[in-house]
């Protein structure tokens, strides 16, 4: 059975078609009425998503983000939210409350989380969650990356009683998580009491969970609207008239589409997409830009408004990850619990360590979390494994999830080399090609020319994924694997493949392959045009498979099991004894002799992947 709702708490302070949804970028008429009168109750919702164990600072600029600064800023905003003097026109002056919520991906495998694994429970990320002071959290796909037991240890180690909520997962098949559900730490929804008001909080997990993470026996209900509506109806039956959905559907377009099927949900806080919603005058972390609407190209403003099943405009928000921003949504309710306006002071608040808006780190979080993690990471950073003559592109978009990059080529070469070097030892056919999913390249930044450290290799390849060899893959199935790799374009999809041992071309305007989580192709793709092995053997010519023997493929066990919907369809594979991080470090030191040259890995890649039209 699905995890149950949590009891009332007292606090201190599947996929849907997005094109069918009407989205309002400007505030609807109800939201423009804030100057006409004060609300009966003003609720400030502080939120974030995709912190992903960036405890020390943002990957591109450590002067921003950092969980100790984030905690300090949250505490400041929590205090300010309930002060009568903070009231703006249209807000309640004397009846004010605040809740703090997370929309998932609360931790991520990598060097900073490795510090937790080395230290043991409670994990540093767990301690950080407790210091921030969340009222409720939902689970993201990365929270399952190291399996249910590590997730259970993470949740159990979070101080306090804040529940992790998700209305569409069944954890009864995993003992460690089922025990937490019995104790109320995992639930479908919860009710937070704030200043005498009841605020219902419902959680929701992506239906893609099994394809993009390692939930094992955890099952996900793909009927998202039905799962949320059942919880909303139950909450309203209890007299709860303010309901917030915190969801992790991998892109705000999914939440926008979902809203149109719901009734009674007042606010949606999305996660998983890393979108940045803001006005033009909002202070941003240097290098960040407001995300463009994929449908219109217009900047996405905070909040978006989407009409629900009753025609009521629902504010939908999210923030960029890495603890770079605290989302602040100030919602005004009337006596019946209806949203009458969203205040102008709503928006993302930058977490800065420099300049006029600099935040001093929370001392307790600094001492208990930041300092020991920093010490561990510093030791990794001192171990230089190679030097590079060229900057290596690891950003997401444009980058490793949308196009060939030199870092993608480097990692794919490392996976291929590891498979070839260890094939005899593990009794498998040496691989001819390698596929590395772009979603597995996690540093999210341009690695500058110069020294490459052990820390860099962990940031690039943080997951506990083992290099695996899948022998004798039929050529038609190799084409299907590559069709899957480019099926998400133009979106920055983690399934986009960086490759070694082959070159291929694709047409993004052609029909995209559709495949289910079992690897069954439900619509054949027509994007892959030509595929040629490094030795000149043609596998696909003008979209047609050329007959011939099967191909031995190196990848890692995540993809070989069907992760990112790669259609291996249960083909036998053999792990060859090392993770893809170890493969990268070994390739840098032994395969390349400690030097990455611009000749071997030029900026922009070397033409392994060609986009045609």
The count of DSSP E runs of length 2 or more, i.e. the number of strands, is: 35
Largest β sheet strand count, sense and barrel closure: 8 strands, mixed
Query: Regions with pLDDT < 50 over 5+ consecutive residues?
Result: 6-22, 29-37
User: What is the typical, i.e. mean, pLDDT?
Assistant: 92
Distance between the termini: 49 Å
Gross morphology? globular
Q: Number of helical runs?
A: 14
Mind telling me the C-alpha Rg? 24 Å
Portion in beta strands: 15-25%
User: Strands of the largest sheet, in order across it?
Assistant: 1-9-10-12-13-15-14-2
Give me the secondary-structure category. Answer: alpha/beta
Helix content range: 10-25%
What do you see in this structure?
It is a single chain. By secondary structure, the protein is α/β, with parallel strands linked by helices. The protein is 24% helix and 24% strand. It contains 14 helices and 35 strands. The radius of gyration is 24 Å and the shape is globular. Belongs to the 5'-nucleotidase family. Residues 1-31 form the signal peptide.
């Amino acid at each position: 059975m699905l995890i149950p709702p949590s009891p009332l708490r007292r606090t201190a302070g599947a996929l849907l078609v997005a094109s069918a949804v009407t989205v309002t970028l400007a505030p609807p008429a109800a939201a423009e009425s804030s100057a006409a009168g004060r609300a009966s109750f003003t609720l400030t919702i502080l939120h974030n998503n995709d912190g992903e164990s960036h405890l020390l600072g943002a990957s591109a600029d450590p002067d921003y983000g950092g969980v100790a600064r984030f905690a300090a800023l949250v505490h400041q905003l929590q205090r300010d939210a309930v002060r009568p003097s903070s009231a703006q026109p249209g807000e309640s002056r004397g009846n004010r409350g605040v809740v703090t919520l997370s929309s998932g991906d609360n931790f991520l495998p990598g060097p900073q989380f490795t510090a937790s694994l080395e230290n043991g429970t409670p994990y540093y990320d767990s301690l950080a969650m407790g210091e921030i002071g969340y009222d409720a959290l939902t689970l993201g796909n990365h929270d399952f990356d190291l399996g249910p037991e590590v997730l259970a240890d993470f949740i159990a180690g979070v101080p306090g009683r804040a529940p992790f909520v998700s209305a569409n997962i069944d954890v009864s098949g995993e003992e460690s998580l089922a025990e937490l559900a019995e104790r109320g730490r995992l639930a479908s929804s919860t009710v937070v009491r704030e200043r005498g008001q009841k605020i219902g909080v419902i959680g929701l997990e992506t239906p893609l969970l099994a394809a993009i993470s390692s939930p094992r026996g955890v099952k996900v209900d793909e009927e998202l609207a039905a799962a949320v509506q059942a919880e909303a109806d139950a909450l309203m039956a209890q007299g709860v008239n303010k309901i917030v959905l915190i969801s992790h559907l991998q892109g705000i377009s999914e939440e926008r589409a979902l809203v149109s099927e719901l009734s009674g949900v007042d606010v949606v806080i999305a996660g998983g997409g890393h979108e940045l919603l803001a006005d033009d005058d909002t202070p941003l972390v240097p290098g960040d830009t407001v995300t463009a609407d994929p449908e219109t190209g217009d900047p996405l403003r905070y909040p978006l408004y989407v009409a629900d099943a009753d025609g009521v405009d629902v504010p939908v928000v999210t923030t960029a990850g890495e603890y770079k921003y605290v989302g602040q949504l100030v919602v005004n309710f009337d006596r019946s619990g209806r949203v009458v306006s969203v205040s102008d002071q709503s928006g993302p608040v930058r977490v800065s360590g420099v300049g006029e808006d600099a935040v001093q780190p929370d001392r307790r979080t600094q001492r208990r979390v930041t300092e020991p993690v920093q010490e561990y990471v510093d030791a990794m950073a001192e171990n230089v494994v190679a030097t590079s003559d060229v900057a290596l592109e690891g950003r997401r978009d444009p980058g490793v999830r949308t196009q060939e990059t030199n870092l993608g080529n480097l990692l794919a070469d490392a996976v291929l080399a590891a498979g070839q070097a260890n094939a005899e030892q593990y009794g498998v056919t040496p691989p001819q090609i390698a596929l590395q999913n772009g979603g597995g390249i996690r540093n999210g930044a341009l690695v500058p020319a110069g020294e490459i450290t052990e820390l860099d290799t962990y940031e690039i390849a943080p997951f506990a994924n083992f290099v695996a060899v899948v022998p004798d893959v039929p050529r038609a199935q190799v084409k299907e694997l590559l069709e899957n790799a480019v099926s998400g374009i133009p979106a920055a999809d983690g399934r986009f493949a960086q490759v070694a041992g082959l070159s291929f071309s694709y047409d993004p305007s052609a029909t995209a392959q559709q495949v289910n989580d079992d690897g069954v192709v439900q619509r054949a793709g027509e994007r892959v045009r030509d595929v040629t092995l490094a030795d000149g053997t043609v596998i696909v010519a003008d979209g047609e498979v050329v007959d011939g023997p099967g191909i031995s493929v190196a990848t890692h066990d995540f993809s070989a099991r069907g992760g990112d919907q790669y259609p291996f369809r249960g083909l036998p594979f053999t792990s060859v004894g090392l993770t893809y991080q170890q493969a990268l470090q070994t390739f840098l030191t032994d395969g390349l002799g400690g030097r990455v040259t611009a000749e071997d890995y030029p900026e922009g890649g070397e033409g392994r992947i060609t986009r045609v039209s």
